[in-house]
Amino acid sequence: MRVKLIEDLPMATSAELYQLSWVIEQLMADPRRIVQARQQLHLGQMVQFWEWGTGKLRPARIVSMKDSQVTLLDEQSQHRISVSYAAIVLGQEQAAASGSHTPGSTASAPLQPPPEVHRKEDFCVGQKVSFSDQCLKRHVGQITRINQRTATVHCDGRAWRISFALLQHVVDVTA
Question: Is residue 53 part of a domain?
Fold first, then answer.
């Protein structure tokens, strides 16, 4: 973050601070950012998170992943804590393995925009697509029906109704 901007925050009006907090909330709730964060996480993984009350990083283990929040188990107190995906900080070795960098990392890679969110118009019946289920297991199947908000995808002998934002195109290169 730019130091000049942080230094100017105490001089901002309450209305400006409220507007800034609204913009930040909207950015953190962006489904593309959540999907990007979820791809780097798995159940049982040790992570650090920003604790809202103290503003400090604390270690915890992932015990559940939901749409907009992740449930963590604080190893010391054995309490479960639900936080937004934006509060999660991967360790430097985990971030290096997943290809991203933490703020303290020495390598300076350019920031990447969140992945594109697909819409209904991007898909048609018969296309081969992939998606991750609730346990982040990857499935590949074929679209058999296009609904208003979801596509029906047949794979593994089962029909799945998947939001278009969670679908990814599969390109067959065996030809």
Answer: yes
